[in-house]
Amino acid sequence: VASEYPVILSIEEHCSVEQQRHIAKVFREVFGDQLLARPVEASADQLPSPTQLKVKVIIKHKKLGPKGDVDVNTEDKKEEKKQQGELYMWDTIDQKWTRHYCAVANGKLSFSDDIEQNAEEEPSREVKSTELHYSE
């Protein structure tokens, strides 16, 4: 490596979750301790500086959907600039949290009617800051 500053690999995956696990194993074997696999500082309120990331390899990638579906039509999706996921909303009538599918596109939030939820399923109210993806 010609520089001591971080190397960022941008990976676009078109493979199953099992194949992704294999790729991750190979990355760990090849890069060893240089692979950044955990936050530099778990309680940090900002991103690490390049100095903190010296001699590290960072892998940036697109994740599969929650059901492990592979989206092979990425060229059309790049232009959409859309974010999507699940949204929990408080139902004032039933006095409970309800789960909705939501999407943000062209500056507008759209969401579905509530998604059926099993009785034993509790909505996750706590999200680790390391799981927040503001833009990808």
Automatic annotation (TrEMBL):
It comes from Micrurus corallinus. SUPFAM superfamilies: PLC-like phosphodiesterases (SSF51695). Residues 112-136 are annotated as: Disordered. PANTHER family: 1-PHOSPHATIDYLINOSITOL 4,5-BISPHOSPHATE PHOSPHODIESTERASE GAMMA-2, PHOSPHOINOSITIDE-SPECIFIC PHOSPHOLIPASE C FAMILY PROTEIN. Residues 1-62 form the Phosphatidylinositol-specific phospholipase C X domain. Signal peptide: none annotated. InterPro entries: PI-PLC_fam, PLC-like_Pdiesterase_TIM-brl, PLipase_C_PInositol-sp_X_dom. This is Phosphatidylinositol-specific phospholipase C X domain-containing protein.
